[in-house]
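Revision sheet: structure tokens.
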Amino acid sequence: MTTSVIAVDENTAAELASDDRYWIQEALPGLRALLRKTGATVAAFDFSGAAVPLSAAVAEAAAGLPGTFQLEGNLLPDGRFAATDLLEAEDDLRPAPYSARLDSLIALFRASGSSGPIAPARTARNDVEKAALYHGLRNTRAAGIVLRRADAPFAPGAQPTYLFARETAV
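Predicted:
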């Protein structure tokens, strides 16, 4: 399964960042990956399906989370994992809207009290949060932002519901 993002320009990014249908996250550094836990087994894969190494801290933290799940996110250069989506949690959540998947992702971490080497990525949902994140990222010259449509199901490949604006556009 592959997933990619569609790049957008500064004007489009600013317009969509103010659209209630889109939520924003920081475009994080590192390798975009899938983190899967089945029983006691924890593994990570890139979007071509190739296994990728995990830090012991991330593997241990994932093993401590309840149930079977598959997360989408970024293996950060410092060894942590920033989860951006929950694709499976016992059941396939891909058909559910992103808003429901994100709520389930947050609930997974909240129920376990987990923090540290694996955690949900910061997501801005409302106008106040989005403005603060958007302008904060511009001021720090972050790599960019990801715009996710809150009502969209997950779909592999480039989708108009999953957009990216580079630092120069943010």
